[in-house]
Amino acid sequence: MIGTFLIASLLGGGVFVQWRAGIREAAALDRWPAVGAFVEVDGVPIHYVQRGSGPDVVLLHGASGNLRDFTFDLVDKLAQDYRVTVFDRPGLGYSGRREMYRGAFNTKAETPQDQAALLAAAAAQLGVHRPVVVGHSFGGAVAMAWGLDHDAAALVTLGGAIMPWPGDLDFQYRLLGHAFGGALVAPLVTAFLDPMGTRDAVAGIFAPQDMPDGYLAHVGPGLSLQRPVIRANGRQVYHLRPALTDMSARYPTLDLPVELLHGTADKTVGFDIHAVAAAKLLPDVQLTALPDVGHMPQHARPGAVIEAIHRAATRAGLR
Protein backbone atom coordinates (compact mmCIF):
# COMPACT_ATOMS: atom_id res chain seq x y z
CA MET A 1 0.00 0.00 0.00
CA ILE A 2 2.77 2.44 0.95
CA GLY A 3 4.78 1.42 -2.13
CA THR A 4 1.79 2.02 -4.39
CA PHE A 5 1.21 5.45 -2.84
CA LEU A 6 4.88 6.38 -3.26
CA ILE A 7 4.93 5.39 -6.91
CA ALA A 8 1.71 7.30 -7.56
CA SER A 9 3.14 10.36 -5.81
CA LEU A 10 6.33 10.25 -7.87
CA LEU A 11 4.39 9.86 -11.10
CA GLY A 12 2.06 12.69 -10.17
CA GLY A 13 4.98 14.91 -9.28
CA GLY A 14 6.65 14.04 -12.57
CA VAL A 15 3.56 15.00 -14.54
CA PHE A 16 3.40 18.33 -12.72
CA VAL A 17 7.10 19.02 -13.35
CA GLN A 18 6.77 18.24 -17.05
CA TRP A 19 3.64 20.38 -17.32
CA ARG A 20 5.32 23.31 -15.59
CA ALA A 21 8.45 22.88 -17.71
CA GLY A 22 6.32 23.03 -20.85
CA ILE A 23 4.71 26.27 -19.68
CA ARG A 24 8.14 27.80 -18.97
CA GLU A 25 9.46 26.74 -22.38
CA ALA A 26 6.50 28.26 -24.18
CA ALA A 27 7.04 31.52 -22.29
CA ALA A 28 10.74 31.54 -23.21
CA LEU A 29 10.03 31.00 -26.90
CA ASP A 30 7.50 33.81 -26.83
CA ARG A 31 9.87 36.20 -25.04
CA TRP A 32 12.95 35.32 -27.13
CA PRO A 33 11.75 34.36 -30.62
CA ALA A 34 13.94 33.34 -33.53
CA VAL A 35 15.70 36.44 -34.84
CA GLY A 36 16.97 35.03 -38.12
CA ALA A 37 15.98 32.62 -40.87
CA PHE A 38 16.30 28.87 -41.37
CA VAL A 39 18.08 26.61 -43.81
CA GLU A 40 17.45 22.87 -43.85
CA VAL A 41 20.23 20.27 -44.07
CA ASP A 42 19.13 16.64 -44.39
CA GLY A 43 15.84 17.52 -42.72
CA VAL A 44 17.48 19.41 -39.84
CA PRO A 45 16.49 23.11 -39.48
CA ILE A 46 19.47 25.38 -38.84
CA HIS A 47 18.79 28.87 -37.48
CA TYR A 48 21.07 31.64 -38.73
CA VAL A 49 21.50 35.39 -39.06
CA GLN A 50 23.38 36.85 -42.02
CA ARG A 51 24.36 40.50 -42.38
CA GLY A 52 26.78 42.69 -44.32
CA SER A 53 28.83 42.15 -47.46
CA GLY A 54 32.42 41.28 -48.28
CA PRO A 55 34.56 38.26 -47.40
CA ASP A 56 32.68 35.62 -45.45
CA VAL A 57 32.97 35.30 -41.67
CA VAL A 58 31.14 32.55 -39.75
CA LEU A 59 30.54 32.87 -36.00
CA LEU A 60 29.96 29.85 -33.72
CA HIS A 61 28.81 30.30 -30.11
CA GLY A 62 29.83 28.38 -27.01
CA ALA A 63 28.24 25.81 -24.71
CA SER A 64 24.69 26.52 -23.45
CA GLY A 65 24.55 29.58 -25.69
CA ASN A 66 22.95 30.69 -28.91
CA LEU A 67 23.65 33.11 -31.72
CA ARG A 68 22.25 36.03 -29.72
CA ASP A 69 25.60 36.20 -27.92
CA PHE A 70 27.09 37.53 -31.16
CA THR A 71 24.11 39.63 -32.26
CA PHE A 72 24.42 41.62 -29.02
CA ASP A 73 26.89 43.88 -30.85
CA LEU A 74 29.73 42.00 -32.60
CA VAL A 75 27.78 41.08 -35.74
CA ASP A 76 26.93 44.69 -36.52
CA LYS A 77 30.56 45.75 -36.04
CA LEU A 78 31.88 43.01 -38.31
CA ALA A 79 29.19 43.55 -40.94
CA GLN A 80 30.84 46.84 -41.86
CA ASP A 81 33.64 44.84 -43.53
CA TYR A 82 32.36 41.28 -44.00
CA ARG A 83 29.36 39.18 -44.82
CA VAL A 84 28.74 37.68 -41.40
CA THR A 85 26.84 34.43 -40.88
CA VAL A 86 26.13 33.36 -37.30
CA PHE A 87 24.54 29.99 -36.50
CA ASP A 88 22.76 28.37 -33.60
CA ARG A 89 24.75 25.17 -33.15
CA PRO A 90 22.80 21.88 -33.46
CA GLY A 91 20.41 21.27 -30.59
CA LEU A 92 20.88 24.77 -29.16
CA GLY A 93 18.90 27.96 -29.68
CA TYR A 94 16.51 27.29 -32.55
CA SER A 95 18.60 24.79 -34.51
CA GLY A 96 17.44 21.20 -34.64
CA ARG A 97 19.23 17.87 -34.29
CA ARG A 98 19.50 14.75 -36.38
CA GLU A 99 17.09 12.00 -35.38
CA MET A 100 19.87 9.78 -34.03
CA TYR A 101 20.60 12.29 -31.26
CA ARG A 102 17.04 12.71 -29.99
CA GLY A 103 15.25 10.89 -27.18
CA ALA A 104 14.93 11.41 -23.46
CA PHE A 105 17.28 8.56 -22.51
CA ASN A 106 19.65 8.88 -25.47
CA THR A 107 23.26 9.72 -24.56
CA LYS A 108 24.52 10.24 -28.12
CA ALA A 109 25.89 13.70 -28.86
CA GLU A 110 26.97 15.77 -31.82
CA THR A 111 30.78 15.89 -31.73
CA PRO A 112 32.54 19.03 -32.99
CA GLN A 113 33.16 17.09 -36.21
CA ASP A 114 29.44 16.30 -36.58
CA GLN A 115 28.49 19.90 -35.93
CA ALA A 116 31.07 21.25 -38.35
CA ALA A 117 29.78 18.96 -41.11
CA LEU A 118 26.18 20.07 -40.57
CA LEU A 119 26.96 23.78 -40.33
CA ALA A 120 29.42 23.76 -43.24
CA ALA A 121 26.67 22.22 -45.38
CA ALA A 122 24.27 24.94 -44.18
CA ALA A 123 26.85 27.62 -44.98
CA ALA A 124 27.35 26.22 -48.48
CA GLN A 125 23.60 26.44 -49.11
CA LEU A 126 23.78 30.12 -48.13
CA GLY A 127 26.59 30.78 -50.64
CA VAL A 128 29.29 31.14 -48.00
CA HIS A 129 32.71 30.58 -49.60
CA ARG A 130 36.12 30.20 -47.93
CA PRO A 131 34.99 31.79 -44.66
CA VAL A 132 37.02 32.91 -41.71
CA VAL A 133 35.45 30.59 -39.12
CA VAL A 134 35.33 32.10 -35.62
CA GLY A 135 34.42 30.00 -32.60
CA HIS A 136 33.97 30.93 -28.95
CA SER A 137 34.53 28.32 -26.22
CA PHE A 138 32.92 25.04 -27.43
CA GLY A 139 32.44 26.82 -30.74
CA GLY A 140 36.22 26.96 -30.98
CA ALA A 141 36.29 23.16 -31.16
CA VAL A 142 33.70 23.25 -33.94
CA ALA A 143 35.76 25.89 -35.78
CA MET A 144 38.86 23.69 -35.58
CA ALA A 145 36.88 20.69 -36.88
CA TRP A 146 35.54 22.86 -39.69
CA GLY A 147 39.08 23.85 -40.70
CA LEU A 148 40.28 20.26 -40.61
CA ASP A 149 37.58 18.86 -42.89
CA HIS A 150 35.63 21.58 -44.69
CA ASP A 151 35.86 24.77 -46.75
CA ALA A 152 37.56 27.51 -44.75
CA ALA A 153 40.13 30.22 -45.40
CA ALA A 154 41.24 30.80 -41.78
CA LEU A 155 40.25 30.08 -38.20
CA VAL A 156 39.89 32.25 -35.11
CA THR A 157 39.16 30.92 -31.64
CA LEU A 158 38.01 33.04 -28.69
CA GLY A 159 38.66 31.29 -25.40
CA GLY A 160 38.41 28.13 -27.46
CA ALA A 161 38.02 24.69 -25.88
CA ILE A 162 40.34 23.10 -28.42
CA MET A 163 42.56 20.65 -26.49
CA PRO A 164 41.83 17.63 -24.29
CA TRP A 165 42.15 18.61 -20.65
CA PRO A 166 43.31 16.75 -17.53
CA GLY A 167 40.95 15.72 -14.75
CA ASP A 168 37.21 15.15 -14.69
CA LEU A 169 34.35 17.20 -16.03
CA ASP A 170 32.26 19.25 -13.63
CA PHE A 171 29.63 17.15 -11.88
CA GLN A 172 26.76 18.88 -13.69
CA TYR A 173 27.98 17.70 -17.09
CA ARG A 174 28.62 14.17 -15.86
CA LEU A 175 25.07 14.16 -14.50
CA LEU A 176 23.42 15.69 -17.57
CA GLY A 177 25.43 13.48 -19.91
CA HIS A 178 24.05 10.38 -18.16
CA ALA A 179 20.85 8.88 -19.58
CA PHE A 180 18.83 8.86 -16.36
CA GLY A 181 20.51 11.83 -14.66
CA GLY A 182 19.79 14.13 -17.57
CA ALA A 183 16.25 12.87 -18.03
CA LEU A 184 15.44 13.52 -14.38
CA VAL A 185 17.31 16.79 -13.80
CA ALA A 186 16.56 18.72 -17.00
CA PRO A 187 12.78 18.98 -16.38
CA LEU A 188 13.37 20.19 -12.81
CA VAL A 189 15.74 22.91 -14.01
CA THR A 190 13.31 24.03 -16.69
CA ALA A 191 10.32 23.96 -14.37
CA PHE A 192 11.75 25.82 -11.40
CA LEU A 193 14.74 27.96 -12.43
CA ASP A 194 13.75 31.51 -13.36
CA PRO A 195 15.69 32.45 -16.52
CA MET A 196 16.36 35.97 -15.29
CA GLY A 197 17.45 34.50 -11.96
CA THR A 198 20.57 33.18 -13.68
CA ARG A 199 22.23 36.61 -13.56
CA ASP A 200 24.90 35.63 -11.04
CA ALA A 201 25.80 32.45 -12.92
CA VAL A 202 26.08 34.27 -16.25
CA ALA A 203 28.02 37.12 -14.65
CA GLY A 204 30.49 34.54 -13.35
CA ILE A 205 31.32 33.55 -16.92
CA PHE A 206 32.30 37.16 -17.68
CA ALA A 207 34.47 37.54 -14.55
CA PRO A 208 36.70 39.37 -13.86
CA GLN A 209 34.91 41.70 -16.31
CA ASP A 210 31.34 42.87 -15.74
CA MET A 211 28.48 41.53 -17.81
CA PRO A 212 27.34 44.28 -20.23
CA ASP A 213 24.13 46.10 -19.43
CA GLY A 214 21.20 44.51 -21.22
CA TYR A 215 23.10 41.34 -22.15
CA LEU A 216 21.03 38.88 -20.13
CA ALA A 217 17.73 40.16 -21.47
CA HIS A 218 19.13 40.06 -25.01
CA VAL A 219 20.79 36.63 -25.01
CA GLY A 220 17.67 34.84 -23.76
CA PRO A 221 18.64 32.55 -20.89
CA GLY A 222 15.24 30.88 -21.16
CA LEU A 223 16.35 29.42 -24.50
CA SER A 224 19.18 27.62 -22.70
CA LEU A 225 16.83 26.28 -20.02
CA GLN A 226 14.60 24.25 -22.34
CA ARG A 227 14.63 20.54 -21.58
CA PRO A 228 15.97 19.39 -24.98
CA VAL A 229 18.62 22.13 -24.98
CA ILE A 230 19.85 21.25 -21.48
CA ARG A 231 20.15 17.59 -22.50
CA ALA A 232 21.82 18.36 -25.84
CA ASN A 233 24.33 20.71 -24.28
CA GLY A 234 25.13 18.29 -21.46
CA ARG A 235 25.74 15.43 -23.85
CA GLN A 236 27.89 17.51 -26.19
CA VAL A 237 30.16 18.69 -23.39
CA TYR A 238 30.29 15.18 -21.91
CA HIS A 239 31.61 13.81 -25.22
CA LEU A 240 33.91 16.73 -26.06
CA ARG A 241 37.23 15.54 -24.62
CA PRO A 242 37.57 12.30 -26.63
CA ALA A 243 36.70 14.24 -29.78
CA LEU A 244 39.44 16.76 -29.00
CA THR A 245 41.94 13.95 -28.45
CA ASP A 246 41.29 12.79 -32.01
CA MET A 247 41.24 16.29 -33.46
CA SER A 248 44.37 17.59 -31.76
CA ALA A 249 46.39 14.72 -33.23
CA ARG A 250 45.61 16.25 -36.64
CA TYR A 251 46.43 19.87 -35.77
CA PRO A 252 49.98 19.64 -37.17
CA THR A 253 48.44 18.92 -40.60
CA LEU A 254 46.25 22.04 -40.61
CA ASP A 255 47.50 24.31 -43.39
CA LEU A 256 45.31 27.35 -42.63
CA PRO A 257 46.12 30.58 -40.78
CA VAL A 258 44.89 30.26 -37.19
CA GLU A 259 44.43 33.08 -34.66
CA LEU A 260 44.02 32.07 -31.02
CA LEU A 261 42.70 34.78 -28.66
CA HIS A 262 42.49 33.80 -25.03
CA GLY A 263 42.13 35.65 -21.76
CA THR A 264 44.81 34.85 -19.22
CA ALA A 265 42.18 35.12 -16.45
CA ASP A 266 39.83 32.63 -18.12
CA LYS A 267 38.62 30.24 -15.39
CA THR A 268 36.24 28.35 -17.68
CA VAL A 269 38.64 27.28 -20.44
CA GLY A 270 42.21 27.46 -19.20
CA PHE A 271 44.66 29.58 -21.18
CA ASP A 272 47.66 27.26 -20.80
CA ILE A 273 45.71 24.01 -21.19
CA HIS A 274 44.03 25.06 -24.42
CA ALA A 275 45.59 28.03 -26.20
CA VAL A 276 49.25 27.56 -25.26
CA ALA A 277 49.13 23.79 -25.81
CA ALA A 278 47.36 24.11 -29.18
CA ALA A 279 49.78 26.79 -30.38
CA LYS A 280 52.61 24.26 -30.03
CA LEU A 281 50.89 21.93 -32.50
CA LEU A 282 49.55 24.30 -35.15
CA PRO A 283 51.96 25.13 -38.00
CA ASP A 284 50.55 28.57 -38.95
CA VAL A 285 49.32 30.10 -35.71
CA GLN A 286 49.35 33.43 -33.91
CA LEU A 287 48.50 33.33 -30.21
CA THR A 288 47.28 36.56 -28.61
CA ALA A 289 47.12 36.53 -24.83
CA LEU A 290 44.64 39.00 -23.38
CA PRO A 291 45.94 39.95 -19.92
CA ASP A 292 43.37 39.86 -17.09
CA VAL A 293 40.53 39.00 -19.50
CA GLY A 294 38.08 36.23 -18.65
CA HIS A 295 36.06 33.88 -20.81
CA MET A 296 34.15 36.43 -22.92
CA PRO A 297 36.72 38.30 -25.05
CA GLN A 298 34.11 39.14 -27.69
CA HIS A 299 32.56 41.43 -25.08
CA ALA A 300 35.57 42.36 -22.95
CA ARG A 301 37.90 43.12 -25.88
CA PRO A 302 35.82 43.35 -29.08
CA GLY A 303 38.47 45.50 -30.74
CA ALA A 304 41.07 42.76 -30.26
CA VAL A 305 38.64 40.20 -31.67
CA ILE A 306 37.98 42.29 -34.77
CA GLU A 307 41.72 42.87 -35.24
CA ALA A 308 42.31 39.10 -35.07
CA ILE A 309 39.63 38.48 -37.70
CA HIS A 310 41.22 41.17 -39.90
CA ARG A 311 44.62 39.49 -39.49
CA ALA A 312 43.19 36.08 -40.30
CA ALA A 313 41.44 37.41 -43.41
CA THR A 314 44.61 39.21 -44.54
CA ARG A 315 46.80 36.15 -43.95
CA ALA A 316 44.32 34.09 -45.99
CA GLY A 317 44.40 36.58 -48.86
CA LEU A 318 40.80 37.72 -48.41
CA ARG A 319 41.66 41.40 -47.80
Question: How would you characterize the overall build of this protein?
Answer:
The structure is a single chain. The protein contains 15 helices and eight strands. The chain has an eight-stranded mixed β-sheet with strand order 1-2-4-3-5-6-7-8, with helices on both faces.
In round numbers, the mean pLDDT is 93
Shape field: globular
Report the uncertain regions.
1-12
Secondary-structure-based class equals: alpha/beta
Computed Rg: 20 Å
Give the strand content: 5-15%
Biggest sheet: strands, sense, closure?
8 strands, mixed
What string gives the helices and strands in order? HEEEHHEHEHEHHHHHHHEHEHH
N-C termini distance? 76 Å
User: What is the strand tally?
Assistant: 8
- For the biggest β-sheet, the strand order reads 1-2-4-3-5-6-7-8
Helix content: 40-55%
Counted by DSSP, the helix tally is: 15
